[in-house]
Amino acid sequence: MSFRFPRGVVPLSVLGTIAGGAILLRDTLVGGTSRYPGEEEIIGRTVVITGANSGLGRVTAEDLAKRGGKIIMACRDMKKCEEVKKEIIEATMNKSVHCRHLDLASLSSVRSFAEEFNANERRLDILVNNAGVMGISGRQKTEDGFEMHLGVNYLGPFLLTHLLLDKLKSSSPSRIINVTSAIYEAGYIDFDDLNCAKKYTHESAYAQSKLALTLFNTKLAQILENSKVSTYLVYPGLSKTNLGRHLSINNSMISGNIVKPFLSVTMKNAEQGMQTILMCALNPDLAEESGFYYKSCRMAPLKKIGKDQATADRLYAISRVWTGLGLEAK
Questions:
Q1: Residues 36, 154, 200, 206: which is the catalytic one?
Q2: Which domains does the chain have, with CATH numbers?
Q3: What is the per-residue pLDDT for 34?
Q4: pTM metric for this prediction
Q5: Segment-wise mean pLDDT, segments of 10 residues, the chain, 330 residues
């Protein structure tokens, strides 16, 4: 006599196994779901967050607003920024939340933002370089002619950080948080083709841009060694944000019905993803640390490729020229 499972039992058990495996994959591959427990208030402090109208930037802005900070939402889409600003004010009862236009694909926009900020703001305590792009299928250029991933994910934040350094120093102790991706490990700085004009794939362009930001964090910590400005490199984990809005997965019926539901289980939500950002922005125990890499609310080893001194120095020199800062004073 053969035994048959009741109808629905096998499918449910299979789904349970898949779901359990997906959660295990999330915890091992995308960085777990550790939470930052600190309850620090930041009343009287000013925070700039790029890309603050969605995803990690939005939830970070709301959390820091709850803690009493003055929040500057630096965004390209001002209509959306104003909508989100109202939501944050309603949720936190903090009216010191402001929208300022910033398009990281335009160096003139970066300069305009910094000029206005430096003229009108008394201090800057926390700078979160969060905004970015990923998965642009066809090679695109910024307003200044740079490959889009390189321009938005690296050169824009590079210039913004330098233009705000004096304000950060005068407000010290202060902090800079550079949001990277674990994909930096697969990156390669091709000095013969930094703008991917000879060969382009969105995967390699994105990886190069995140490696560039990682090397910048390494170099920046050295530059700021004798100041009270600390810099932190944060991998928030694979999070459900609109960063990959350009990816073809978002326009595929099969991907939409199969792949995206799987990813929704394995990926962190934005609130989970922001925890390490919060830790680096707020934790008093990290005040004396600078230049290190963090994920899942703890320090993590940085691969050799992310701290290669010769590459960091050469890239830094090129970036100063490309962004109009000029050669570094000897």
A1: 206
A2: 39-321 (3.40.50.720)
A3: 84
A4: 0.85
A5: 46 48 49 82 99 98 99 98 99 99 99 99 99 95 98 99 99 98 97 97 98 99 96 87 49 49 62 96 97 97 98 98 84
Q: What is the pLDDT of residue 264?
A: 52
Examine the residue annotation and report whether 154 is marked as an active-site residue of this protein.
no
pLDDT computed for residue 327 by the predictor: 84
Are 271 and 239 in contact by the 8 Å Cβ rule? The answer is no
Per-residue tokens: 245: 């809005």
HEC string of the chain equals CCCCCCCCHHHHHHHHHHHHHHHHHHHHHCCCCCCCCCCCCCCCCEEEEECCCCHHHHHHHHHHHHCCCEEEEEECCHHHHHHHHHHHHHHHCCCCEEEEECCCCCHHHHHHHHHHHHHHCCCCCEEEECCCCCCCCCCCECCCCCEHHHHHHHHHHHHHHHHHHHHHHHCCCEEEEEECCHHHHHCCCCCCCCCCCCCCCHHHHHHHHHHHHHHHHHHHHHHCCCCCEEEEEEECCCECCCCCCCCHHHHCHHHHHHHHHHHHHHCECHHHHCHHHHHHHHCHHHCCCCCEEEECCEEECCCHHHCCHHHHHHHHHHHHHHCCCCCCCC
pLDDT at 12: 46
